[in-house]
Design brief:
This is DNA helicase RecQ. Its EC number is 5.6.2.4. By secondary structure, the chain is α/β, with parallel strands linked by helices. Helix 2 packs parallel to helix 3 and helix 14 packs antiparallel against helix 15. The longest helix is centred in the C-terminal third of the chain and has 19 residues. The radius of gyration is 22 Å and the shape is globular. The structure holds adenosine-5'-diphosphate and magnesium ion (MG). The site of adenosine-5'-diphosphate has 13 residues, from helix 3.
């Protein structure tokens, strides 16, 4: 009889084609197989999906997987189907007939992974159906969506636990790449899993170089930088759709193979531009933050934030898309106090709490951008990790500059 370790390794090879586990994947999988609540905090690209996919294949019944984006779910379902796993999704894009088939196959025990959009999970008829099904566990991917302190808060996510509890007393696996202590506590409270076993790996990305540049002659700086990266894949993030179009155009007229990506584009155009980027017909994708979640292109060599981002978490997620293959990744962010003011204006229609939260996040961004301390140290500190020495691989370590002009900072502090 094969040991559990051998069994896991065989499945890993047979289904996913990998010969060894990465990091703590195996320990996490065993924890899930033991039926324990599990909280996985690992950076983007670390391989979190496998942590729930593999045990779902071993346990009886279907694992529910909750993920915020239909595109993300479809991607995983397609990949699993391609290797012969019965994974299905339940969301609003299905026809009545498809929906019935998925339900039938789930009730008969054929489905091993059932991906459910949070909106679908809250539907009464689906809850009734899930009550009848044999569910092995629930995996909540991108669990930071639960927290208002996260960079991608989804109100529906806060109801997940309550609904799962109605279905059955199943173990819950929460996964996220957002590791700030505030978000972590929120997630655990909301999912009532203060007792969960936590698997948190380091967020340090040694191969990423971090730099913050003042937003002056930004277009010129951008063109110069992108040209210095000729033929390499990169992402340029902008705050607005309009800016995306403008910058994509700027790069194109400067002979860079660039394409825009934002939610305002026709779906067909958006998909084509994304595919062109993935297939390297296009070198640079200029995008709003709508681009990137679930995109798995290993050789993105640079990520530029043309506009100052609204939180360090979001920023870190986005820069995390560079250098997934472990090779060089340049992360350049343009910073200006004006951008911060603009961002603050976006919040004026929000509730008081939302506005206060957003302001705290902006404050953190300002102090990061204006600091002359090692960037990596600051970022890791932000994620609750201590990093003792200076990294020698960020702008502040490699080219210590004169102290930031205090004027802007004073304005910022006094702004209220
Ligand atoms: P995350 O959700 O943590 O961002 P993913 O689950 O999307 O990461 O995985 C990132 C990439 O790593 C995927 O291409 C995946 O197939 C690959 N991967 C995961 N586990 C392994 C492994 N044990 N060996 C090799 N590649 C792996
Ligand atoms: Mg993931």
């Amino acid at each position: 009889i094969a040991s559990l370790e051998e069994q896991l390794k065989d499945k890993l090879k047979e289904v996913f084609g990998y010969s060894s586990f990465r990091g703590t994947q195996e320990a996490i999988i065993k924890n899930i197989l033991d039926g324990r609540n599990t909280f996985v905090i690992m950076p983007t690209g670390a391989g979190k999906s496998l942590c729930y996919q593999l045990p779902a294949l071993i346990l009886d019944g279907a694992a529910i997987v909750i993920s915020p984006l239909i595109a993300l779910m479809k991607n995983q379902v397609d990949q699993l189907n391609a290797v012969g796993v019965n994974a299905q999704f339940l969301n609003s894009t299905l026809t009545k007939t498809e929906m019935n088939r998925v339900k039938r196959e789930t009730l008969s025990g054929e489905v091993q992974l059932l991906y459910v959009a949070p909106e679908s999970l809250t539907k009464e008829e689906n809850i009734e159906f899930l009550k009848k099904a044999n569910i092995s566990f629930a995996a909540i991917d991108e669990a930071h969506c639960i927290s208002e302190w996260g960079h991608d808060f989804r109100p529906e996510y806060r109801r997940i636990k309550q609904i799962l509890a109605q279905i059955s007393n199943m173990p819950v696996i929460a996964l996220t790449a957002t590791a700030t202590p505030k978000v972590q506590i929120d997630i655990q409270k909301n999912l009532q899993m203060e007792e969960a076993d936590i698997f948190k790996s380091s967020f340090n990305r040694e191969n990423l170089y971090y730099e913050v540049r003042p937003k002056q002659h930004t277009k010129k700086q951008l063109v110069k930088f992108v040209k210095s990266q000729k033929g390499k894949s990169g992402i340029v993030y902008c705050l607005s759709r309009k800016k995306v179009e403008e910058i994509a155009n700027l790069l194109q007229v400067n002979d860079v193979k660039a394409a825009p990506y934002h939610a305002g584009l026709d779906a067909a155009v958006r998909i084509k531009n994304q595919d062109d980027f993935l297939n390297e017909e296009v070198d640079v994708i200029v995008a709003t933050i709508a681009f990137g979640m679930g995109i798995d292109k290993p050789d993105v060599r640079f990520v530029v934030h043309y506009d100052t981002p609204k939180s360090l978490e979001g920023y870190y997620q986005e820069t995390g898309r560079a250098g997934r293959d472990g090779l060089e990744g340049n992360c350049i962010m343009f910073y200006s106090y004006n951008d911060i003011i603009k961002l603050e204006k976006f919040n004026k229609d929000k509730t008081v709490t939302e506005r206060d939260n957003a302001r705290v996040l902006l404050d953190e961004m300002v102090s990061y951008a204006e600091s002359s301390l090692c960037r990596r140290k600051q970022l890791l500190h932000y994620f609750g990790e201590s990093y003792e020495h200076d990294c020698n691989f960020c702008d502040n370590c490699l080219k210590p500059r004169e102290k930031f002009d205090g004027e802007e900072y004073v304005q910022w502090v006094l702004r209220a």
